Fold this protein.
Amino acid sequence: MPTQLRTSRSVRTSLRRQVIHWRQAASRLASLEHLASGTAWHGIDHQMGVLLRASLQRSIDTVLESAQRVSRDLDSASDDAALRRVKREVTLLRDVYLKAEETIHFYTDAVNSRTTASVAALLRACDILCVRSMQQVLQPLGRSTPTVLTYIDKGVGASILKAGLRLWDGNVSSVAAIKVTQHNLFRPTAIIHETGHQVAHTLDWNDELARALAAGLSRDPVVASAFASWSSEIAADAFAFVHTGYAAVAALHDVVSGPPQSVFAYRVHDPHPISYIRVLLGTAMCRQFYGSGPWDEMDIAFRNDYDLELVGFPSVGLIRKCIPLLPDVVRIVLQNSYRAFHGRSLAALLDPAAVSPAALQKLEYIAGPSLFTSHAWVWKECIKLLALNGYKIALGEGDIAAQYTTQAAWMTRLGFAVEVN
């Protein structure tokens, strides 16, 4: 057999084998029960299950269609040049598969965190809390609210893969995926911070807020520039505050209170404010809307734990310049009117007073013990229950363990109210 003919046959065989490999791999991905257990799939809301499966199937179909196209091109390739084109197509097919696999594994890993019926119920409660928090702002503005899939993972902080963004495989995410940290499952105000990111993205508030901070703090350009660069995280913190008040601030405090080098860390391109400033901005929000309260004690303790007089981090100079302007920052963020909110302020859309300590205590007085056990109360006021429980835990008084137990019980009750797959 001539050498050239033998080479062509070898190349064709190799290419065919590779196409079959990636097509078979994609076909296996289609068996979603192999990637997340039946129990886990059963633990998500029925409609979300339908939406998610359809979305993942689109990713798989993209790979299969690509494999079919490459296979046809290989069959019709009649010379070495055509085979070289097919080789490039096989390389692209491999890339398409790996990106689809990344997407599918992300979501199935998230689903798979619903390991038992009780964990699934707790995460469905988190799903509901997330959706409700967004509805309260988006619905009055005539915007739709995305579906949310929460999942448990390790680590200190929560995170979000927003709905509407391009995924690894180029498809658009139809579901917002929000990470709940293991340690904060029974104190999950951080998931409301994450839905704040989704809302700010949907309403295009981040850039508008950045401009407002830059203009409102322009008397000190360095401080103005810093706060403007932090606008997306400040927006999310403010969103969590208007929903859950002091509970969100205290939970944030406990998450960021790490070693001094992390509390004082300042990275120029990091959208997160210096943690020291972030905590004091939270206490400033409480003070401006609620007056004096337990946040003052937290403020004192935090400043003592991370004493500016005792550290020499490069960020200290900027921190000292930022602190006097925090009340102005709170006003700009929460009380300025924004185009994103149709000319209203965030505080006007969602009054933080509704989750003030006085308002939460009044709710508890009116509802009585049934507040945490009645399906009607839990369904209607779940976000305020999150704020109330979080407030009690933040106070650090009495039987704190009992507050966590109460939180777990009403979240479980809320989660079991959802129709599952």
Q: What stands out?
A: The chain has a mean pLDDT of 95.
